[in-house]
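As a warm-up, study this chain.
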Amino acid sequence: MFWENGKLSTGGKIAIGVSCLLVFCVILLLVYIYIRRRNNDYDFALPHELTSLAAKRNRYQRQKSLMVLEMESQHAKGLPSHFTTQ
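Now compare it with the structure written out below.
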């Protein structure tokens, strides 16, 4: 059908060119969709609950270290210390 005298006919060359163009357009469309989807769908930020827990933990650690410093300074002044660090 696409062969004439042992060579590829003009219709065959056109069919191959059109099919290659079609495959190229489909690949280009898939790449475009993939890039658009990748930029919009995924959010790698930490969830609000985790950041809230981390903030509470940091605040607790700050208060604890301030309390330890206060107890150590009172102990250095000669006041009895009832707080033991672990």
